[in-house]
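Morning, I've got a small favour to ask if you have a moment. I've been staring at a protein lately and its backbone has me curious. You're getting the sequence in one-letter code plus the fold written as C-alpha cells. I've dropped the whole record in just underneath, so have a look:
=====
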Amino acid sequence: MTSILESGLDPYAADDAPRMMPLADDYSVTVESRLPPEVVAEVARMGILVRPMAPYQYQMGSFHMTWCDDTGALHASAGPRRAGQAAGF
C-alpha cells in the first residue's frame, strides 16, 4: 500500500516490486533475487550480507486487488507470488 499511496505505483507494479526481510541480527538481509545487481553491490559495500531467495518467493506475501479509478473504470490485479486470477463481473 505504501508503494501505491506514496510512490504512485499501480497495484500490480507495487506487488511486483522485489521484497526483502528485515535486517537480521547477523547483519544479513534476505531478498528476492530480482534486485538490480548495483543495489546488491551497494548493500554489500555497507557490510551487509545479502542472502538471495527465489525471484518471486511466495512466503513474502501477496495481494489481489480491485479498484475504481478517477474515471470510474474498474481494474483488477492478481499478485505474481500466488496462483490467482483477478476478474470482474
